[in-house]
Design goal:
The complex is a heterodimer of chains A (349) and B (185).
Chain A: H1 3-22, E1 34-40, E2 43-48, E3 59-62, H2 80-86, E4 91-95, H3 108-127, E5 132-137, H4 139-150, E6 156-162, H5 172-177, H6 184-190, E7 193-194, H7 196-205, H8 208-224, H9 230-241, E8 246-247, H10 248-260, H11 263-266, E9 270-271, E10 274-275, E11 284-290, H12 303-307, E12 313-318, H13 324-327, H14 335-345
Parallel strand pairs in A: 3-4, 3-5, 5-6, 6-11, 11-12
Antiparallel strand pairs in A: 1-2, 2-4, 7-8, 9-10
Helix pairs in contact in A: 1-8, 3-4, 6-10
Chain B: H1 9-32, H2 35-65, H3 71-109, H4 121-129, H5 163-166, H6 178-182
Helix pairs in contact in B: 3-4
Classes of the chains: A alpha/beta (349), B mainly alpha (185).
Chain lengths: 349, 185
């Protein structure tokens, strides 16, 4: 493209760029039709509609506490839920909801021992099955690992953990919040619900130039070059900007137990008088790490492989980032089919 | 790598900008990974939390003095609702388990269509006593943090056997279950 041609396109590209940014909040995400199966407080269990459920063992998707679970079902044609349904799986989604000040006393024990526990129960009842697959991502994966450790035999047949922090001692987060200068108690006391925007800001600060400049520069460049990134950009940007607050007790426990004291991997984490011992995990286990993940780097997940008692353990390592692993352009060609293949072998009667 | 001599002026500018951006990204990532940046972040977070709390308290105080419900009142009411919902959830789970037991009991005794009222108490107790004990299937826990400590023995639960499946009859679709739909918001 010549300089004159570029200059001629500039006004239109600028207008288009502004329009894409300003209308991001209107982009539809989470398009797959679903039914509400169960609710408790802010937590909701959804079941996605399907007329081709071939595999009897249902899949329960569990996402992190700091973003919304719509990333599993981002947009039509690029939805993990849509893919699983097409592969014949019975798909459920656990939505933690949006905590507020009244949820300040909700801790990790409530998430694992109540909400997740009951969601598993309701999933089994709704599907009419006795076993399911737990698929957890990020903090959701850690909560699933805790649940599997507390219930090694029974409801959970398979566990899939995606970019899951298990031993985050070497991570950038640990450097930020793991030291004594970061007074997590003060933060948790002053904010009954720690604002999601603050956590999102911290996440973006890990790669400040990439998140605050490169993303927008690339978007503008694509528009200037004549591409149409509106649909893909808006869906992802809308999801990224939707940050629910972190219930203060859960936040305090998460930071203290995981980053300050590193209790989980050391086997010193207790929930409701029961020790969360990862060595008790016996489920078929698939651990997926992303090489370019700066939020939950692979080194923080891999210790799990040596701890668990499962006889069936698989590890997949992908050359993507924390979110790109499942929502990137290559995910539906590489990661999703690999997950489905692994699941299919373990989802029969 | 593309030869810079073959690039047009605009492309050269673009390449230079991308190079500068890449270097800036590396420099900033190195900066934020320093321990001192962690301390700076910690102090900033504490200050923002303090300012936020003070302004929130002031606003709440003003509203309460005007006899208007403030955030604290809404939070208190919401917590009461949560406690009620917790109790309701546990009651519903108990009812579901009793219903499952009844279906199992009916299947085991060859009766059908009987409701709760028609099952003799002794028979229910006998059915309960003979219920197979399996482990690892979710059970409603006793209490939440809002209601005090939980029972340690509530971690495991007798396995929820799906009686209709166990007896080979068709599986009920959950959407059609009035108990499930009743509980949706």
């Amino acid at each position: 493209m010549s300089a004159i041609e570029t200059l001629a396109r500039l006004p239109r590209a600028t207008l288009e760029f502004a329009n894409v940014i300003l209308t991001t909040a209107d982009a539809p995400i989470g398009p797959s039709p679903r039914d509400t199966v169960w609710t408790h407080r802010g937590t909701t269990l959804y079941r996605y509609r399907s007329d081709c459920r071939e595999h009897p063992v249902p899949v329960l998707l569990v996402f992190a506490l700091i973003n919304r679970p719509e990333i599993f079902d981002l947009r039509r044609g690029n939805s993990f839920v849509e893919f699983l349904l097409a592969e014949g799986f019975d798909v459920f989604l656990l939505d933690w909801g949006v905590p507020d000040e009244e949820d300040s006393q909700t801790g990790l024990a409530e998430y694992v021992c109540d909400e997740l526990h009951w969601a598993v129960r309701e999933t089994l009842r709704a599907a009419g099955e006795e076993e399911l697959t737990l698929l957890g991502w990020c903090i959701g994966g850690t909560l699933c690992a805790m649940y599997c450790a507390l219930h090694p035999v029974g409801a959970v047949r398979n566990a899939i953990l995606l970019t899951t922090p298990i031993d985050p001692s070497g991570s950038l987060y640990a450097r930020w919040v793991g030291h004594d200068d970061f007074d997590v108690d003060l933060i948790a006391e002053r904010w009954p619900a720690v604002p999601g925007s603050g956590i999102d800001w911290a996440n973006k600060l890990m790669k400040p130039v990439t998140n605050y400049a490169t993303t927008y520069r690339r978007l503008f460049q694509n528009i200037l070059d004549g591409a149409d990134p509106r649909v893909s950009y808006q869906a992802m940007a809308k999801w990224v900007a939707d940050n629910p607050p972190f219930a203060s007790r859960a936040y305090r426990e998460w930071i203290t137990w995981m980053y300050k004291e590193n209790r989980l991997v050391a086997g010193r984490l207790w929930l409701r008088d029961e020790r969360v011992d990862l060595a008790r995990i016996e489920q078929n286990l698939l651990v997926v790490t992303a090489r370019a993940d700066h939020i939950a780097p692979p080194e923080g997940t891999l210790p799990l492989l040596d701890l668990v008692a499962s006889e069936d353990v698989t590890h997949m390592d992908r050359p993507s980032g924390h979110i790109g692993l499942m929502a990137g352009s290559q995910a539906k060609h590489e990661t999703w089919p690999a997950l489905a293949d692994w699941l299919e072998e373990r989802s029969g009667h | 790598m593309t030869d810079p001599n073959t690039l047009s002026g605009a492309e050269q500018v673009r390449a230079l900008y991308e190079q500068a951006e890449s270097r800036a990204a590396d420099a900033f990532e190195e900066l934020v990974s320093k321990p001192s940046f962690g301390v700076l972040l910690a102090r900033s977070a504490e200050n923002v939390a303090a300012i936020s709390r003070i302004s929130s308290d002031l606003a709440d105080l003003a509203l309460r003095n005007l006899r208007i419900a403030g955030r604290a009142d809404v939070t208190r009411l919401s917590r009461q609702l949560h406690r009620t919902e917790d109790k309701l959830e546990r009651v519903l789970q108990e009812v579901e388990e009793l219903r499952d037991e009844l279906v199992r009991w009916q299947s085991a005794n060859g009766s059908a269509g009987a409701g709760f009222d028609t099952v003799p108490k002794r028979a229910r107790e006998a059915a309960k006593a003979s219920r197979p004990q399996a482990e690892g299937v979710p059970k409603p826990t006793r209490g939440t943090s809002a209601n005090g400590p939980l029972d340690a023995d509530s971690k495991t639960e007798p396995k929820r056997a799906d009686a209709t499946l166990a007896n080979g009859s068709p599986r009920a679709e959950p959407e059609a279950d009035p108990k499930r739909t009743r509980r949706t918001p």
